[in-house]
Design a protein that fits this description.
single chain; about 325 residues; alpha/beta; Collagenase (Catalytic Domain); five-stranded mixed beta sheet; two-stranded antiparallel ribbon; 10 helices; 7 strands; about 30% helix; about 10% strand; binds zinc ion
Length: about 325
């Protein structure tokens, strides 16, 4: 049903028969009630299959917001047990992780640029923009975005960029059948390789900023990926989210990080000891917000793993870096 309906609507859109007016969804929470969101948007979505060139004039560009669709698989008990907090203590790091991981890890990056067939979709991301994206990613992972940005051992190095023109892949639903087919067809490298897909995809016509799979679910498979909407990259149309930090956020998931608001105020939250608990995502940049007053510390609104605006996101914590290292050693290094 879905592909057939979409094809028909894409054809209609190409003929200028549709006028998108929907607010675009952005990347989203593992705790979001997806069914409610999908239900609310379903009727409107059915007439807005994709963004056409005509739809991307300035006056038609809606307000982007993170948080209406899931950008990772829904968190399960299996996810919560995949990297347990006791494995990320300093003592465990010294005994088990440090001997396995070199002090510097170079991550090979395969970039898969998908082109659409409508105007302004045909050459969305050339080599200069790919290089710029990796500079932003490397700066964040080197601790360069701010004084509180803990450095990591990872450097992302471009291995190859390929370009594919296919409208169905350009507008693929996140983690839908076409999205999976695209990933299986283009995926390169082993468990340590970052496969980065750039298109304008989203759930049932609601474009999302980005999505990713956790290492314990996908490392070493053809579905291991980070996907970013070209509008969430520098020069993209997603105002407030076009500085490149969506890429940093999604690679954070690829490294094994949960959202900072995972689990809300109760329990062990995101399983990282130095990110304060947070009841809900932050969508703006509300300084001093404290949604879990019984938990020490203000909400981590500047953390890359919250849903704040790009300009607000500047930090990984040392605890998050230890979790990344533990996950990488277990699932991506092939050495443990
Ligand atoms: Zn996320």
């Amino acid at each position: 049903m879905r592909p057939r309906r979409t094809l028909a609507l894409v054809a209609a859109a190409a003929l200028g028969l549709t006028t998108p007016t929907l607010p675009l969804a952005a990347h989203a929470s593992a705790t979001t009630d997806l069914s409610a969101v999908s239900g609310a948007g379903a009727s409107a979505v059915s007439v807005v299959p994709c963004l056409t060139g005509a739809a991307l004039r300035d006056q038609d560009v809606p307000v982007w917001r993170r948080g209406q669709l899931e950008d990772t698989p829904t968190i399960t008990e299996t996810d919560l047990r995949a990297v347990v907090p006791s494995e990320t203590t300093r003592r465990s790091m010294r005994a088990e992780v440090e001997p396995v991981l070199p002090s510097r890890v170079t991550v090979p990056v395969y970039v898969h640029v998908i082109k659409g067939t409508h105007p302004r979709e045909r050459n969305p991301f050339g080599p200069k923009r790919v290089a710029q994206a990796l500079r932003i990613l490397n700066n964040a992972f080197a601790g360069g975005q701010g004084a509180q940005n803990a450095p990591t051992r990872y450097t992302f190095e471009l291995e190859r960029t390929d370009y594919t023109k296919r409208d169905g892949w350009y507008h693929a639903y996140n983690n839908g059948p076409r999205d999976d087919r695209m990933k299986r067809a283009l995926h390169r490298g082993g468990a340590d390789a970052l496969n980065l897909y750039l298109n304008r995809g989203g759930e049932d016509g609601l474009p999302v900023l980005g999505w990713a799979r956790f290492p314990w679910r996908a490392a070493g498979t053809e579905l291991d990926h980070v996907s970013i909407n070209v509008d969430a990259m520098p020069g993209g149309l997603a105002r407030g989210y076009n500085s490149g930090d969506t890429l940093v956020h999604e690679v954070g998931h690829w490294m094994g990080l949960f959202h900072t608001f995972q689990g809300g105020c109760e329990g062990s939250g995101d399983l990282v000891v130095d990110t304060a608990a947070e009841a809900q995502p932050e969508f703006d940049c509300t300084e001093g917000r404290d949604t879990c007053p019984d938990d020490p510390g203000l909400d981590p609104i500047h953390n890359f793993m919250d849903y704040s605006l790009d300009a607000c996101m500047t930090e990984f914590t040392a605890g998050q870096v230890r979790r990344m290292d533990t996950a990488f050693a277990q699932y991506r290094s092939g050495r443990s």
